[in-house]
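Hi R.,

Here's the chain you asked about this morning:
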Amino acid sequence: MNDSETGNTVALTVQDDASQTMVQAPRPSTAVVTAVADAEGVDETDLPPLFHAIDPDALDSLFDSSDEPPHATRTAGSISFHYHGYDVTVTANGRVEVTAQPSR
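And the predicted structure, written out as tokens:
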């Protein structure tokens, strides 16, 4: 994964119950919104703001690959949270898993 200010993109694997696709996104927060929108079959702007589920800047900072302190490339770790009816897991290796939450 690369820092969004460098202009590089990251390939994040998005997995739902039925399929697995690759999403190009400048940062993890963007990939999460794109993945959920794809799973829902809607435009990203039709979703509620991500900050209702998690702080997008904090999420991006967790996986910032800048070599400048205080950031360093993480080689392990993950974070999981709920967003718009989906369980979302973002890992240090660039994987974003999006799984529909069971109906209640």
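Residues 1-12 have pLDDT under 50 and may be disordered.

Let me know if you need anything else.
M.
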